[in-house]
């Protein structure tokens, strides 16, 4: 077997550091393992994606180590029959187009601009 590349060693080191930082924080170790398992099948040639995920993991590690994090979870958006029908939401809310991430500030009561400039 060939020697691991520098990037492989960095990813493995990040994995160990994330597991250590997540000890004692509910859901952290399971989340770290699940994230790494999910991306384990990436081809070695997809270096840009691997480097992106590595940088994202480094930022997560900084957050875990900062002391402000008490637990680690995931935001899951349910889809299916339990979801309200499109356009049937409360008055003044926009229907979900489902075409990407929503702005978290949309539902916080901030004024929205319309296309006519008001």
Task: Give short descriptive properties of this protein.
single chain, globular, mainly alpha, about 120 residues
Question: Could you walk me through the main structural features you see in this protein, from its secondary elements to its overall organization?
Answer:
The protein contains three helices and no strands. By secondary structure, the protein is mostly helical. The chain has a domain at about 5-65. Helix 1 (about 5-20) runs antiparallel to helix 2 (about 30-40) and helix 1 packs parallel to helix 3 (about 45-65). The model is unreliable at about 85-95 and about 105-110 (pLDDT under 50). Pfam families: Complex1_LYR. InterPro entries: Complex1_LYR_dom, Complex1_LYR_SDHAF1_LYRM8, SDHAF1. Keywords: Chaperone, Mitochondrion. It comes from Ailuropoda melanoleuca (Giant panda).
Q: List the secondary-structure elements in sequence, H or E.
A: HHH
- Low confidence ranges: 83-93, 106-112
Helix residue percentage: 25-40%
* Radius of gyration from CA coordinates: 20 Å
Q: How confident is the prediction overall: mean pLDDT?
A: 75
Task: Please give the number of β-strands.
Answer: 0
Structural class: mainly alpha
The dominant shape is: globular
Question: What is the straight-line distance between the termini?
Answer: 65 Å
The biggest beta sheet reads: none
Strand content: under 5%
DSSP summary: helix tally: 3
Task: Give the assembly state of these chains.
Answer: single chain
């Amino acid at each position: 077997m060939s020697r691991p590349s520098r990037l492989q060693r960095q990813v493995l080191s990040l994995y160990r550091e994330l597991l250590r930082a997540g000890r004692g924080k509910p859901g952290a170790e399971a989340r770290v393992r699940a994230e790494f398992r999910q991306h384990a099948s990436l081809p070695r040639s997809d270096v840009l994606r691997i480097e992106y995920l590595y940088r994202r993991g480094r930022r997560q590690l900084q957050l875990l180590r900062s002391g402000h994090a008490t637990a680690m979870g995931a935001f899951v958006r349910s889809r299916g029959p339990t979801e309200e029908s499109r356009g049937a939401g409360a008055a003044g809310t926009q229907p979900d187009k489902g075409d990407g991430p929503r702005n978290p500030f949309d539902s916080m009561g901030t004024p929205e601009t319309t296309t006519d400039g008001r």
